[in-house]
Design goal:
Strand order of the largest sheet: 1-4
Number of helices: 13
Order of helices and strands: HHHHHEEEHHHHEHHHH
Shape: globular
Strand content: under 5%
Distance between the termini: 35 Å
Radius of gyration: 20 Å
Number of domains: 1
């Protein structure tokens, strides 16, 4: 059962990525494929948000902190900032590992004070919002490390080396294939975690934290684990994004990206990893198309879309798919 669910999730992500890539290449050539590749990375980031919010009920507006930190970690390693540390030599593998480990460590530190300090509900959301503001301002002021307003340009792409053979993600199709493979693996991995007893504990946390405590579960520990895993996945997404975009800026740590990710999850369907992935790719693609028509109004489109999803109560795209599959009328009675 666990293997079947993981394979189903991975294959669905693969199908979505393939269709998106074909459409992007068909309409925009190499540039369109690169654009879609970035959207796939943001889809991976959205899955980290959904893993936290959709399955445990913890709504965070600070998830971009881990995404942005992962992006900067990859850039620092690949640009030789930590060349004096042998394990952090200028390699793609070291860059991606640092993009996973450092955000996870930050999540452990912050999570300890949040969860063992019993910060819950709206207070938790507000604290994560403040964290995002604080870290983005810190990055902006610490220009010697984060690059200030100009950021860190010319970040080297992903490169895999085996002896004399080397594969670089500089080409659009190569980067698309690598990113798709990483998204599929991450989606299947998260789905396999959710199919374990820990996944049941997350559902209990989402439905009734107090009831979970009555059953003898260490709620703070459960929150720490899901918070750390989601941060690690967000950091991985940030590292990949840095390698694809070739540029990192302080706004990747900010509130706007965190808010966008919440919208993606809501549109795709909270509590469905595939829905979060699809929501990110779809909303980003539509936003890009609209920005070419009316640059000043694409954020208004996002806001209206989010309000409609909340008012209709359809649980996004996946909710509509589920209703159609079961033949149940929508909330509007149509």
């Amino acid at each position: 059962m666990l293997l079947r669910r993981s394979l189903t999730t991975g294959i669905t992500v693969l199908i979505i990525s393939t269709i998106a890539g074909a459409l992007g290449h068909g309409f925009g050539g190499e540039a369109g494929l690169r654009q879609i590749t970035q959207y796939l990375v943001l889809g991976l980031f959205a899955m980290s948000v959904d893993f936290l919010w959709g399955y445990s009920g913890l709504l965070s507006f600070g998830q971009a902190v881990f995404f942005g930190l992962g992006a900067f970690c990859y850039a620092w390693v690949r640009k030789g900032t930590f060349a004096f540390i042998p394990v952090l030599e200028n390699s793609s593998l070291a860059g991606l590992l640092s993009a996973i480990v450092l955000p996870a460590l930050l999540a452990v530190i912050v999570g300890y004070f949040l969860f063992y300090g019993k910060i819950t509900g709206p207070n938790f959301t507000v604290v994560t919002l403040a964290l995002s503001f604080l870290v983005s301002l810190l990055a902006l002021g610490w220009s010697g490390v984060f690059g200030g307003y100009t950021g860190l340009p010319h970040v080297p792409p992903l490169a895999l080396t085996l002896g004399n053979w080397e594969m670089s993600a500089r080409a659009g199709m190569t980067s698309f294939v690598i990113v798709t493979a990483l998204c599929v693996i991450a989606a299947a991995g998260l789905r396999s975690i959710l199919a374990t007893p820990f996944g049941l504990a997350l559902e209990g946390l989402r439905d009734s934290e107090q009831r979970l405590q009555y059953l003898g579960m260490n709620v703070a520990q459960v929150k720490m684990v899901v918070w750390t895993i989601s941060a690690a996945v967000a950091g991985l997404a940030g590292g990949i994004y840095s390698s694809i975009a070739g540029y990192v800026a302080y706004d990747l740590l900010g509130v706007l990206l965190s808010t966008e990710a919440v919208v993606w999850v809501a549109v795709g369907g909270r509590g469905a990893l595939v829905g979060a992935f699809l929501g990110a790719v779809l909303v980003r693609a539509v936003s890009y198309a609209l920005s070419g028509i009316a640059l000043s109004y694409w954020m208004l489109f996002l806001g209206v879309l989010f309000i409609l999803v909340v008012l209709l109560g359809s649980n996004g795209i996946m909710g509509l798919v589920e209703r159609f599959r079961r033949g149940v009328p929508s909330a509007t009675g149509s």
